[in-house]
Each structure stands twice: as structure tokens, then as C-alpha cells.
Amino acid sequence: MGERPISADMPARLLDESSASGYLRSRGVIGAEFAQVRALSGGVSNIVLAVDSGAARLVLKQSLERLRVRDVWLAPQARILGEAAALRLAAGLTPGFVPAVVDVDPERFTLTIQRAPDDWVDWKTVLLAGKVDRCVGAQLGSVLARWHSDTLGGTGLPDAMIADTDTFQKLRIGPYHETVAARRPELATAIMSVVDRMRATRVALVHGDFSPKNVLVGSAAALWVIDFEVAHLGDPAFDLAFLLSHLVMKSVHVPESAHLFDEVADSFVEAYSRTVPPALAPDMGHLSAQLGCLLLARVDGKSPSGYLSSGSAETVWRIGTGLLTEPVDDLSEIAERRELSIR
Ligand SMILES: Nc1ncnc2c1ncn2[C@@H]1O[C@H](COP(=O)(O)OP(=O)(O)O)[C@@H](O)[C@H]1O
Ligand SMILES: [Mg+2]
User: What's the fold here for domain 121-341?
Assistant: First the structure.
């Protein structure tokens, strides 16, 4: 059997725990020594394997054509090449805050990167355990601000990423915004006007999946942002809204820590706003509407939140509807809206 896909329309053959080490040897990424491979849990859109071989500690990621969710959700495997390009760009802008790229295979659609130390944990797990540290919020605000500021106007982005509008459409606008708009026609006009503005705002490198799950934290304030598969030239407010949507959901899910999540949100937006040039200063009305859309999508879109109870999901739905249809003009009002929405 050939290693390559037979035609551009055929998905590349998928790797697994038994085939990964031979594959990495064939690419010269690891040597002949024994390799241990295990699957990493997490995402729905990629095969993600941890590989240890000699001194090499790697993650091998291969994009799936059909995502592992209940609804049918398809996305081109070539998005992994955009992920690799964005990761390299981010590594140059914020050294130490992303893993290094080790290998990229445009035929099998794989990306091999440096793996975090085994005692690092994803920030989602940390937050849900009630350990809510506002310093992480501030660090993320500064890192994100650097990416947005230093790529303003598409500076440094590869031509293929500048030309690509498909990835963001297939991974976000379709499954999130358009799905909610179709399921909740009464909100469609408001949602689609946010989408129109996003589509018209292609101004900087946007991570596209800036969530606590995609932040790995270690000791001594070390952190990495991972998972650039939705990176695109787009609307910076999307990344801010995306992280805030996760903090709002967690504050509803763990109400006793709600004030801590609010502090993290404040530190995040404050650090971001302090670092970006005036052109990128957050427009609160737009950010609010963006956040509203994303909260609605985590209740009614194709990638619903995995941890919200039905009661919490209803609360998130009410907050989202309010933030979309009657946007707030100050971050502190989000917490007030949440308190009013809890019944
Ligand atoms: N460089 C890395 N170091 C350590 N763990 C990683 C690394 N990259 C990914 N992982 C682990 O694998 C999981 C899935 O990887 P991710 O890149 O987020 O893929 P997906 O797009 O499928 O979410 C992450 O949530 C994390 O637990
Ligand atoms: Mg991920």
C-alpha cells in the first residue's frame, strides 16, 4: 500500500499507536531506538499521540477529515499545515509560550511538536478543580496581544493563510454561528450581523481556539498555548470572546468560584488592552455580541459544552442571548448579567 493519499480528495491514511514510531523513523524524526507511543485524550478533530524515544519527547498530531462529534462536521485535513505555520509564527513572537515545531508532513497531514513536561496540566482541569489564578489570565492577555499586534495587517502570515477563509468557516462560523442561527431563527439576524462584521475584519493572526483546554500550565508561571488548527487572518475580538466564553461557562458551573473567574477575565482583558495599539483596543459592544454568540453556540451549536448541566446550560443561554441582543459596554456588567440570569 502506498503511503500517499491516492488523490487530493482521499483522506490520508491515519496513524495510530502501532504505526506512529515506524512513521516517525521513516521521516528521520526519531532514530532506531525503542519508541513508546500513547494516545493523548482531548480533541475531537485530530489524532494526538505522545511519543518518547531516546531523549525525544514529542506530540504527533494528524488532522481528521470527519470530526468526532455527534453531528456531521467535515473539515479539510490540510488545516494542519496552517496550524504548523501559525505555531512557527507564534514561536517567533512569544518565544517560550508555544511548543517548538519539529516536523510537518504535507502528504500525511501530520505535525510533530515538542511535548510539555509530564507534570504540566491543561488549564481547564486546573480551573474546574477550583484553582483559579489571575496571573495566568494576565499572561494570556499579554501573549495574545503580542500575536494580534505584531501581525496587524497580515504581517508575517503565509500567503496560504491570508487567502484561506474556509478553515474558519468550517470550524467556527458554520458549526457555531450558523448552526445556532438555524436552530434559533429569532436570533438569526443578530448572529449574522456579528458574522458579517467578523468576515469583514481580517486584520491579524487569530488563534481561533483560545480556550483553557488549549493552555498547558507548569510550575513557576510557565505556560504554553497549543492547538493552532483554527488559526486564521481574522477578527481579534474572536479570541478575546472565546476565552471569556469559557470563563463565563465555568463561573456558571462553579458558582462559588464565580468571583475568581471574574478576576481572571478582568486580568486577561486588562493585560491585553494595555499591550495592544489603539487600533486593537477592544470594542466592548462587539466583544459582548461575539461572546453572546459563542455562549449560545456552546448550548445549541455542533460542539456543545461537555460539563454544563441542563440548568446551567439554560443560564448560559439566557446570558448569551442578553449579551448578543443588548450588548454591555463594560466588562463588569457581564458578572452582573450572570447574577441576574441565575434562577
Ligand atoms: N505539545 C504538547 N505537550 C503536551 N501535551 C500536548 C501537547 N499538544 C497537545 N497535547 C495534549 O493533547 C491534547 C490534544 O491536543 P490538541 O493540539 O489540543 O488537539 P485537538 O485539536 O484535537 O484538541 C491537548 O489537550 C493536550 O492534553
Ligand atoms: Mg485542543
Answer: Aminoglycoside 3'-phosphotransferase; Chain: A, domain 2 (3.90.1200)
Confidence of residue 343 (pLDDT cuts 50, 70, 90): low
pLDDT of residue 323: 98
For the chain, the distance separating the N- and C-terminal CA atoms, rounded to the nearest angstrom, is 60
Measured in Å, residue 343 CA sits from the centre of ligand 2 at: 32
Of the candidate CATH numbers 3.30.9.10, 3.40.50.720, 3.30.200.20, 3.40.50.1820, the domain formed by 20-114 belongs to 3.30.200.20
123, 216 Cβ separation under 8 angstroms? yes
pLDDT tens digits, 72-106: 776 788 889 999 999 999 999 999 999 999 999 99
Give the distance from CA 318 to its chain's centroid.
Answer: 24
Ligand 1 touching residue 79 (CB < 6 A): no
DSSP output for 202-259 = --EEE-S---GGGEEE-STT-EEE---TT-EEE-THHHHHHHHHHHHHHHHHSGGGHH
